């Protein structure tokens, strides 16, 4: 049975794992040197859950224990990166002794980036909302680049804080995240075969959804519904589709709606409103608006053209 630990601040995390706090809003932790102050935490460190109200990035060396959200295959074996957003609950499994854990953790409070350029586009780093089986795997060269960013942050933390410290720390953190964005794009490319399999399953899900009476029961399919069926996170599904096809998940759903609608419109026994309801629209005007935006004419005009 897993123990759940709640962490609300950098100092609280550092206190739990025996790490000195050099800055109240950010911490770089060498996981091989942790010395938990709580004996109970030491006993359960190999089987626990954390709920953190701070951002966390865990770089797990390949020789460490497995992450419970599990990964089916590795692109590289130099390291695995897990990104945790505030409020997220995650778990770790480790069959080794705690002292033998290896890797690095970067933890930062949202207050660190408030009022900075980084805060304005944190949502661009969608991997903070990926599921655990969508971790980032990096090469030795990529790991070295990330280590340079970590060293820049560490240098600032180990020296006296001045008026420039926060700017340099946040800039280094942003550089780190930008590299991660690049590496995730590489991972989408190197997993081309697996991505095509996901795309095929995604398209089949859409086809089966509209072929059944599911639309009458639950309305239009959502990205969340499709992602759950595919056992991946909505953000990962959206990013994968954009990388592979150039279109978002929403765009794929809308295109499927239009394709099915075109077939149904040929049946003159059904009104446009009836077709809209069959497709899962609660309001026929929403269907008409989507159809006209996509095709250039209304469903009624399209029917009369054919």
Automatic annotation (TrEMBL):
This is Helix-turn-helix domain-containing protein. Residues 200-305 form the HTH araC/xylS-type domain. The lineage of its organism: Bacteria, Pseudomonadati, Bacteroidota, Bacteroidia, Marinilabiliales. InterPro entries: Homeodomain-like_sf, HTH_AraC, Tscrpt_reg_AraC-type_HTH. It comes from the Bacteria. PROSITE patterns: HTH_ARAC_FAMILY_2 (PS01124). It comes from Plebeiibacterium sediminum. Keywords: DNA-binding, Transcription, Transcription regulation. The keyword Acetylation does not apply. GO terms for molecular function: DNA-binding transcription factor activity; sequence-specific DNA binding. The keyword Transcription regulation applies.
């Amino acid at each position: 049975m897993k123990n759940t630990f709640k962490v609300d601040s950098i100092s609280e995390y550092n206190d739990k794992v025996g790490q000195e706090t050099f800055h109240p809003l950010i911490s770089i932790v060498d996981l091989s040197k942790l010395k938990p102050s709580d004996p109970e935490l030491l006993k359960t460190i190999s089987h626990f859950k954390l709920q953190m109200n701070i951002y966390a990035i865990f770089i797990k060396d390949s020789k460490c224990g497995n992450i419970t959200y599990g990964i089916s295959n590795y692109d590289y074996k130099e390291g695995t990166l897990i990104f945790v957003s505030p409020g997220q609950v995650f778990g770790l499994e480790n069959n080794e002794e705690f002292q033998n854990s290896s890797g690095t953790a970067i933890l930062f409070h949202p207050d660190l980036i408030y009022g900075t350029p980084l805060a304005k586009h944190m949502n661009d780093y969608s991997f903070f909302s990926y599921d655990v089986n969508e971790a980032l795997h990096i090469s030795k060269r990529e790991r070295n680049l990330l280590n340079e960013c970590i060293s820049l942050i560490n240098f600032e933390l180990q020296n006296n804080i001045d008026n420039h410290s926060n700017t340099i720390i946040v800039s280094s953190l942003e550089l780190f995240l930008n590299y991660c964005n690049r590496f995730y794009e590489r991972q989408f490319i190197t997993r081309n075969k697996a991505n095509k399999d996901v795309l095929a399953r995604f398209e089949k899900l859409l086809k089966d959804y509209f072929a059944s009476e599911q639309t009458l029961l639950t309305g239009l399919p959502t990205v969340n519904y499709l992602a759950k069926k595919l056992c991946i996170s909505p953000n990962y599904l959206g990013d994968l589709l954009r990388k592979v096809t150039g279109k978002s998940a929403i765009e794929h759903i809308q295109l499927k709606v239009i394709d099915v609608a075109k077939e149904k419109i040929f049946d003159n026994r059904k009104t446009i409103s009836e077709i809209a309801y069959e497709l899962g629209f609660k309001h026929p005007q929403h269907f008409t608006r989507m159809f006209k935006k996509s095709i250039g004419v209304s469903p009624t005009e399209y029917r009369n053209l054919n």
